[in-house]
Write a structure and sequence with these properties.
Helix content is 36%, strand content 14%. With 321 residues, it is of the alpha/beta class. Helix 1 crosses helix 12 (298-320) and helix 2 crosses helix 12. The structure holds N-acetyl-L-norvaline (AN0) and phosphoric acid mono(formamide)ester (CP). Phosphoric acid mono(formamide)ester (CP) binds at residues 47-51, 142, 150, 277-279.
Length: 321
Amino acid sequence: MRHFTSVFDLPNLNEALKQAAEVKKNPFGYEHLGKHKTCLLIFFNNSLRTRLSTQKAARNLGMDVIVLDVNQGAWKLETERGVIMDGDKSEHLLEAIPVMAQYCDVLGVRSFARFESREDDYTEKILNQFIKYSGKPVFSMEAATGHPLQALADLITIEEHKKVERPKVVLTWAPHPRALPQAVPNSFADFMNEANVDFVITHPEGYELDPKFVRGAKVEYNQKKAFEGADFIYAKNWSCPGVTNPDKYGQILSKDMSWTVDTEHMNWTNDAKFMHCLPVRRNMIVTDDVIESPNSIVIQEAANRVVSAQTVLKMILESEF
Ligand code: AN0
Ligand code: CP
């Protein structure tokens, strides 16, 4: 595997899950792989988990790590070609990418959806420029339309906590005060569709995710019906994906607090585990009671971000060097 931007980059999902279990059991067993290799992590957006867990993962593999917050200390970057650069942006991405690539062997990139153009976001314009102009293996640390390291960690967590062979997993929209990307639900759907789970997506009308990610998944607009018999509840807010309503792309269509996951919601389920990628807004997405309950596995889920990043980096190192 050279690049990692979606579930389809993994040669085999079951094999990746086996390797993840192996990495978790023996985190320092592959230290030789990263010797004298540098991993550069580039952040265009904030991060707590991705920033820390990916550094930890790379170090476990013996790599050196450099972290760059583009918006804190680097030159402001222009990303559009053809622009007369007479404004506040001092450097162009088309130089910055190949320059950054000189200083590393593997590149991680976080660049969220900008909501300026649905097409630019859904063609992954920024991430694909890193792939094209760096000449190095690139992995996504959440790009415009996907967060595959999160979704792999989510699947590892579901595998660890499931009580039946094929659990019912429900992805539910929940309210949030700010417009958030669709990257997390997109990748979660991508992975669940490839996993051995009964997958249901529930959200208010207008929030339909892109068919490229939904594929054959069941969409149930009635949240209560969706929750019935669920073994895992995966909550997440996302803004309008603009599938049925392209003019509303990136907008907030609803702040309906009846979608907030509270104890009553969890009582509709089959004693489900509660999951969220974090950061989470309490009492918007989920109540204090639910996130603090024994059924909440959000911390175990965050812990598995090291495992998912290490599995992906190990696969890149093994196939590229
Ligand atoms: C981001 C999002 O929803 O994509 C990152 C989640 C991992 N969340 C926020 O910006 C709050
Ligand atoms: N879940 C996740 O990616 O968290 P951060 O945005 O803090 O990295």
